[in-house]
Amino acid sequence: MDLIKFVPEQLLILLAGLYVIGIFLKNSPKVLDWSIPWILLVVGIGGSITLQQGITALAVFQGIVCTGTAVLTNQLIKQTSNKEQ
Questions:
Q1: The model's pTM
Q2: How far apart are CA 10 and CA 12, in angstroms?
């Protein structure tokens, strides 16, 4: 399944932003690792609702997909570069 089909063009900037925010949160000593995906989820849904100009089920779903894609991308890069295991 190609998740990017569910992300409209105007939300691609949100996806990139979530990835960068995740990197900053990971490098912050005060943010616990388990909380990063939850923070990104809230930001992703909020950003999607803002960019789509309204609270709809589709906006919430697309915010979740953007967040999932950003986290998955991060994990793919991380796990691919860590080939020791």
A1: 0.84
A2: 6
